[in-house]
Specification:
The structure holds two protein chains of two kinds. By secondary structure, chain A is an alpha/beta fold. Chain A contains nine helices and five strands; from the N terminus they run ααααβαβαβαβαβα. Chain A has a five-stranded parallel beta sheet with strand order 2-1-3-4-5, with helices on both faces. Chain A is globular and about 55 Å long. By secondary structure, chain B is an alpha/beta fold. Chain B has one domain: TIM Barrel. In chain B, the strands form four sheets. Chain B has a six-stranded parallel beta sheet with strand order 7-8-9-10-11-12, with helices on both faces. In chain B, strand 10, helix 16 and strand 11 form a beta-alpha-beta unit. The chains are: A alpha/beta, B alpha/beta. At the A-B interface, helix 4, helix 7 and helix 8 of A face helix 12 and helix 17 of B.
């Protein structure tokens, strides 16, 4: 029952209730991984509502906030446990762009869905992405950017990943308000998304975890 | 045709289209920033920091392309300054609507990042924003918004205004005033030189969407959205508190001396509104907290004889119905991600619609494709007038890497298919 209520509170973006239920479940000694699994289910449903036009960006921002608040409670409890992650994603905003609202929503949703996300930050040059690919060996690299100029940076980054011989080791998604099918083609990415929910769905698809 | 006739022809074309009448052909209205720099061999840093190069690059593009209007933005969002100073010092504040590179150097504001300073020299400057007002300070803001801007916000926004009444503080304001005069002079020179090569000019007033003011300058976007879910009534009060001042801001800045109107031969005065939170907000929030106060500001500035020139940034698909509430033929709006055909379908000829090829197309496509795209747009949109071609809708103007041959293909299409 608590599990259903919890998912319902999350999907309805009832922040107070969701946090209250989290604390209740933790106090009862429930396995935090079960709570995480419920968050994943809720994230999935919220993403669908967004793509159906029922939810808007403001709802995703609140979702990210609620998920972060819950993760703050769960993180210390999960630390000792060996959690099998569903996949690894390196995410960053490309060189010359320092916007990160979209990137941060994607990360919050991905983490709620059970992915490990390495956030390399904003205004990151191609070398930073290459270094992170070498170090973390992610399945997916997510390039964010809001500015029109970010498109050029995304292309440069993907070109550099190719030149470093790493392009066939990772899938690449470009995300941001100015991306579209042409930008995907132009930059040589595998996927694109101009909203966070679609981005998460496509990343799951790229990893084969959908 | 002599230059003055050419200018009058362009002026009338724009005036008619902007006020929803049928002109001789669809006008091409161009906003840009570093495009003219790249085209003229200047870096972004030079365009944003050097007024001479900014003027030179703008004139160069104006001469080489057959546009009807050109405006080269060389600053970032500066409404926090403009709104703070316009009532007491309109003659100087008029030049503070945008924060230029030199203003940033003087103020050391924490909102923005600039080429050659915090960023590489050929990168676009960026407005990031910051949480300036804490949640518990809403009440103080609501009590006296402009006093709050001066006493609390500006010292937090600008590092060099951190200590009111200090030597540094006074020196900074003195420098800012002097720089505003420099910038005003440079702007006036550019406008006159554009006039001399046949380009019209409309005086521009400035107001703002009340909720955007809170999101952009005080709480930051993420926080103001969370506030709307957690404590909407307080946000509403804050919106009401700043609203009357923003109306005043529009009216004061739109009070143009008769000799200026005469010089440019027009009664049309724009009131500029870039809208930021529209795409973020779900209709329940938009219809309650964003749109009614904004519509109120629109109506008051229209009453004062101004024509709201509105950038509907992001997607406006979820909010099209609200546009039926605007007074007929009294607003011109550019739509970034909403198909203008949908706007026309939803509201008919209620407002002037501005739209054109996005930068994705101007950068990555071919002249043939741009030509065809523009032709299709014109055939669908130009009937009965009230349509302006505005290239680069996805960046509020032509972006740096747009290809000149694609821009020319767009102009050709307008000349062929844009005539009435």
């Amino acid at each position: 029952m608590t599990s259903e209520d919890f998912i319902k509170a999350l999907v309805e973006l009832d922040e107070e209730r969701a946090l209250e239920l989290t604390k209740e479940r933790v106090e009862k000694g429930e396995d935090p991984l079960t709570i995480l699994e419920d968050m994943r289910k809720a994230a999935d449903e919220i993403g669908k509502k967004f793509e159906d036009g029922e939810y808007f960006v403001s709802d995703l921002i609140l979702t990210g906030e609620i998920f972060n608040e819950i993760m703050e409670i769960l993180k210390p409890l999960i630390k000792e446990k060996k959690v099998k992650k569903k996949g690894k994603v390196v995410a960053g905003t490309v060189e010359g762009d320092i916007h990160d609202i979209g990137k941060n929503i994607v990360i919050a949703l991905l983490e709620a869905e059970g992915f490990e996300v390495i956030d390399i930050g904003v205004d990151q040059p191609p070398e930073a992405f290459i270094e992170a690919i070498k170090k973390y060996k992610p399945e997916v690299v997510s390039l964010s950017g809001l500015l029109t100029e970010a498109i050029e940076s995304m292309k440069n980054t993907i070109d550099a990943i190719r030149e470093a011989g790493l392009r066939d080791k990772v899938k690449v998604i470009v995300g941001g308000g100015r991306t579209n099918e042409e930008v995907k083609e132009y930059t040589g990415a595998d996927e694109w998304a101009d909203d966070a929910a679609t981005g998460v769905r496509k990343i799951k698809k790229l990893i084969g975890a959908d | 045709m002599d230059i003055e006739e050419l200018r009058k022809e362009k002026l009338e074309r724009l005036e008619r289209a902007l006020t929803c009448k049928e002109p001789d052909r669809v006008p091409i209205l161009v906003f840009n920033d570093v495009f003219c720099g790249k085209y003229s061999g200047y870096t972004a840093q030079e365009i944003y920091f050097n007024y001479e190069k900014w003027k030179d690059a703008t004139l160069n593009v104006a001469k080489n392309f057959n546009f009807d209007y050109i405006f080269t933005l060389n600053g970032l969002e500066g409404m926090f300054l403009f709104a703070s100073f316009i009532e007491k010092a309109p003659e100087v504040a008029a030049n503070m609507r945008f924060v230029t590179g030199p203003y940033h150097q003087i103020l050391q504001d924490t909102y923005t990042r600039w080429p050659g300073i915090e960023l590489k020299e050929d990168v676009h400057p960026q407005f990031i924003g910051k949480e300036i007002m804490k949640k518990e300070e809403y009440e103080k803001f609501i009590e006296a918004p402009i006093e709050f801007m001066h006493e609390v916000a500006l010292p937090r926004i600008c590092e060099n205004l951190a200590n009111p009444a200090s030597i540094e503080y006074n020196t900074t304001l003195t420098r800012l005033g002097a720089e505003a005069v420099n910038y005003g002079n440079a702007t006036l020179q550019l406008i006159m030189e554009l006039k001399n090569i046949g380009y019209p000019f409309f005086p521009m007033a400035h107001s703002y969407s009340p909720l955007d003011f809170l999101g952009d300058f005080l709480r930051d976007i993420r926080n103001v959205i969370l506030d709307l879910y957690r404590d909407p009534e307080t946000v509403k009060e804050a919106v009401e508190a700043i609203k009357s001042h923003l109306i005043k801001t529009g009216i004061i800045s739109g009070t143009i001396p008769p000799e200026v109107k005469e010089m440019f031969g027009t009664e049309l005065i724009w009131c500029f509104y870039p809208l930021h939170l529209t795409e973020y907000l779900k209709p329940e929030l938009y219809n309650e907290y964003y749109w009614p106060p904004l519509l109120n500001v629109f109506k008051e500035t229209i009453k004062a004889g101004l024509l709201p020139f509105v950038l509907f940034e992001g997607s406006h698909d979820a909010h099209l119905e609200t546009l039926r509430g605007i007074p007929k033929h009294s607003i011109a709006g550019m739509f970034e991600k909403t198909d203008p055909r949908r706007v026309k379908e939803a509201i008919g000829d209620r407002m002037c619609i501005m739209y054109g090829p996005p930068n994705a197309l101007l950068i990555g496509s071919t002249p043939e494709k741009v030509h065809d795209w523009t032709r299709e747009l014109l055939l669908d949109m130009k009937d009965d007038g009230g349509f302006v071609l505005f290239p680069g809708v996805d960046a509020a103007g032509i972006a740096k890497d747009a290809k000149p041959e694609n821009i020319n293909a767009m102009i050709d299409a307008v000349e062929k298919y844009g005539k009435y």
